[in-house]
Amino acid sequence: xxxxxxxxxxxxxxxxxxxxxxxxxxxxxxxxxxxxxxxxxxxxxxxxxxxxxxxxxxxxxx
Length: 62
Fold this sequence. Notes:
Layout: H1 12-17, E1 20-26, E2 33-39, E3 43-47, E4 54-58
Antiparallel strand pairs: 1-2, 3-4
């Protein structure tokens, strides 16, 4: 399994003001599992490094 960092998810706003969560997302097209970091209660676009398929995911912290 390949670990890929997404620098646009690790900007100063996120690091300084919010909790960051980490999860594993599986691409529905190629099956690759990628670890991503994201800010709670925000939508982001996941782009698979292998096939560039866009999958919108919304995560909420309770």
